[in-house]
Here is the input.
Amino acid sequence: MSDTTRTATAEAGSQLEAEVKRRRTFAIISHPDAGKTTLTEKLLLYGGAVQMAGAVKARRKQAHAVSDWMEMEKERGISITSTVLSFDYSGYRINLLDTPGHQDFSEDTYRTLLAADAAVMVLDGARGIQEQTLKLFEVCKRRQIPILTFINKMDRPSLDPFELLEDIEKTLGLETYAVNWPLGNGDRFKGVYDRESGKLHLFERQAHGGKKAVAKEVDPRDQAVAELTDEQTHEEFTEGLELLEAGAELRKEDFSRGKITPVFFGSALSNFGVQLFLDKFLTLAPQPSPRLSEEGTIEPTDDKFRGFIFKIQADMNPRHRDRVAFLRICSGKFRRGMKAKCTRTGQDIKLNYAQQLFAQERVIVEEAFPGDVVGMTNSSNLILGDTLCEGEAVSFEPMPLFSPEHFARINIKDPSRRKHFQKAMDQLCLEGAIQVFFPKDSYARDPIIGAVGVLQFEVVQDRLKNDYRVDIDYERMNFILCRWLEGKEEDIEKFTGSRQTLVCHDLWDKTVCLFPGNWDLDYAKDKNPNLVFRSISQVN
Ligand code: G4P
Here is the structure.
């Protein structure tokens, strides 16, 4: 190697290292209405990515007005533009991955968490842990990703802060560490005490949350603080602080392994506690982490470019039929126009058209680094879980398939289109839009589709009609969960379940049972002690 080449390689290496170090890639998980959109918006506001709070929602409304498409397209309009939002703040590059939490809750939501290095869990201070948070948390736990908690809406009457911490500990089995502590809640919410600096950040109610709130910092022992609120609230606050000091420490390694969550209190709507959260988040949240592959651990600073596809999004709008494959970069540097090999097909793909949403603008990506997510628009050959790499082929962990919660039987209106239908089903399954199950002993040939969110059925019906010219009806079924069976073949053959249980196989010929309720699942477990009932399978 010549001296010039050696210097260039060393420079590229240190650039890569520096870029990895400054990246923070995370997803926000929450139950609908806890305040995920509001917090996202405020993070963008503090990050300088939007000038005015309200821009995210305004964009939504604008998207609705522009496209007079059906309801779900409006919903999808949101998720297309907000799959990942990137912005620079305080020298860091922040990639915020969107996990839709409303009725468009889908498998994508789960898989998006695979592309994140950390998660922020937003809880409503009046409600604590709710159903959807719990589901998403399970995925974070499986991956052991660090979780930060933002307890929102403290400007509204909230549960006791200790009760909220206990809820997290009991329901999620996650230790907590309060990074800050609220003084009151609802009308009596006066601020948060930052334990690190020992300062109380005073909250000033704002007529609207459009501007950044600048908190006044005071000593919590100031007489003026006691006068801010009633005696009881102040007493509870000071007692709380004493109790906290006697509590657990925030051990970095426990946080990194997802065993303890740093907890922040605040109010996203009134911008309160948001900047404190963002600043602490940057120091606490990890840089892009190494990733497991069949060939061993891949370090982000490895100079060979590698990434995997965690989401495929097909645009519903017939005026611009994009199909975007979202790639999470795991190592090396992405350069526009570079060639990378798809491990599954062995084919080289020229990476010309990668896009990113940077500070609310869609941009063509010239270069990107580990932790970044780029949307590839010329992606018709790519499927979910594909790895793209430079040099030796590697395979990251297979993409998980989660138990759907809604099921429907499909009826193809024109039987002569059955072949097209099958092709479409294969494609939609590989995109991860839905799962398809074939009843084992069914007299009818109609397959069953399963989805995590009901909206997916309409998406499938629409895609079949527009992309494959196959008209279908679907009839909702009363199953609510499925389990993949694992065990000896003869035990699987002899499977016994309740009369309402349906035995099927999936696209990869694995045996899977659909159950109308937990009773039927427990019954099956009881009758088939040699079998393992898995709630998660994988693509292949
Ligand atoms: P989501 O994305 O998790 O579903 O929640 P989103 O941010 O849309 O917030 C849900 C509702 O809660 C919104 O009210 C929002 O304004 C409100 N909210 C969010 N953060 C706070 C907070 O810190 N304090 C208070 N008091 N309210 C908060 P909405 O009436 O449903 O919508 P909008 O009319 O305000 O847009």
Observations:
- The chain has three domains: 24-284, 291-389, 400-538.
- Confidence is low (pLDDT under 50) at residues 57-82.
- The domain at 291-389 is CATH 3.40.50.300 (Rossmann fold).
- DSSP finds 15 helices and 33 strands in the chain.
